[in-house]
Amino acid sequence: MSQPVAMKKPVMPQLINKRKAAEILGRSAATLKRWRAEGVGPNWIEVQGRVSYDVNVLLEYIQKNTRVASVRAAMEDKYYWYDFTVRGQRYRGSTNETKAAKTAKIGGLKLAQRIENTDPLPKKPPVLLEFSQRFLEWLDNVKCEDKTKA
C-alpha cells in the first residue's frame, strides 16, 4: 500500500519594484539595470516589461555575498580564504585547504608575515629571497668614498 505524498505549498514571492530593491541592496536603480544587462547581481522577475525583485532572493544574494574578515569559506567552492588589511593594503587569497583548523594556521602565518614584513611561506625561490636579503644588508654596511654623498 503506497503512502500519500505530502506536497509543499509553493511560497508566494514578495515582489518589490526596482527602486525598493536598490534601497535594500544599498545601490542605485541604475546599477541594478546595468547588472541585469551584464547578467550579474540578484535574479529578477520581468512580467510584461516590468522588472520586480523577490525580497527572499535579495536576502539570499546579500547573505551569499557577505564577506567576513580574517578567514572565510567561499560559498561556491569548499576552500577557505584569508582576507585582511595591514597598513592600508588588502591581502587575500586561497589557502587551498578544506579544514578550518589548518586554514586558521595558514591565515595566521600570512597575517604575521605581512605585519612583520617577513615571509614564512615564501612564493619566490629561496635563493632569490636570500640574495635580496644579503644585498640589502650589504647596502646598509657599505662604506662610501670621502667625497661621496650618502
Helix content: 40-55%
Arithmetic mean of pLDDT: 77
Say how many strands there are.
6
Global outline:
elongated
How many H/I helical runs?
A: 5
In the sheet with the most strands, the strands line up as 1-3-2
Q: What is the gyration radius calculated from CA atoms?
A: 27 Å
What is the distance, rounded to the nearest whole angstrom, between the alpha carbons of the first and last residues? Answer: 96 Å
How many domains comprise the coordinates? 2
Low-confidence stretches are: none
β content, as a range? Answer: 15-25%
3D architecture notes:
By secondary structure, this protein is of the alpha+beta class. Helix content is 41%, strand content 19%. It has 5 helices and 6 strands; from the N terminus they run βααββαβββαα. It has helices spanning 18-25, 29-38, 55-64, 100-116, 126-141, and strands at residues 15-17, 45-47, 50-54, 70-73, 80-86, 89-94. The strands form 2 sheets. A 3-stranded antiparallel sheet has the order 1-3-2. Strands 4-5-6 form a 3-stranded antiparallel sheet, covered by helices on one side. The relative contact order is 0.08. The mean pLDDT is 77.
Summarize the SSE layout with pairings.
Layout: E1 15-17, H1 18-25, H2 29-38, E2 45-47, E3 50-54, H3 55-64, E4 70-73, E5 80-86, E6 89-94, H4 100-116, H5 126-141
Antiparallel strand pairs: 1-3, 2-3, 4-5, 5-6
Short description:
Helices cover 41% and strands 19% of the residues. It is of the alpha+beta class.
Key structural traits:
alpha+beta, 3-stranded antiparallel β-sheet, 19% strand, 150 residues, elongated
